[in-house]
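I'll show one example:
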Amino acid sequence: MNRLLASTGLLISNSCLAAPTAPFSAWNKSGDEHEARFCVRLGTIDVSADAGGQLQVAGRRAASLRLMKFETIDWLWSMPAGSDYLIAYESTHRDEDSSSGGLCRFSGDLMRRRWCTQFPAFNLTASMSSSKTVFLAGIGTVAEVDARSGKYLWKVSGLYDRSQAFNSFFTGVERGRMVEFYAVDGGGNAKPWMALIDRTTGKLSSAKQVDSQTSEALDPPRSAGPCLK
């Protein structure tokens, strides 16, 4: 039996079978922080980006990520979404020494930005659910975003306050209407933490240390190789 997520019309299976979500793919990176360049091949097109989030397709100026003033891109990841592309990013504020993230959707040729949504945490992990929504996780925060509109379906914050728990997240694991987010803490403890969220209500069901964890990668790879200047 399936359950309907009323706010979006998305179907969520009630089955308890665990299903790891699909992680976004990393872009290559060259250079450091404010001089970084990124590149990737999306389908049949070669795409690059500068640290300000400006995209280029085969050397032609395309759309751009929507950053806050004085922010620069640290990492980029992407995922196909029908004929479009979703691009997740982590960025640093030049003057405040603080980091955050975001998620944007672009047309397939990357010439038009459809929407961008900011995410208030770093150590970003982005993955696609079986119902084609996006799970975002970062230090102390987990969320689900509607890939069609960019709107939050729910967001849970404040997890890092629990003994420095939930510092870096693994890819989320769907289990029926629940989603499990496994993470390591900032204190070097061997046991992972797990936050259990009810997707139909957006409420935290439990947050605790556990003996096992997902076999998925800790978070999306941070650098897959150099970009040519």
Summary: Residues 24-128 form one domain. Residues 1 and 14 are 6 Å apart (CA to CA).
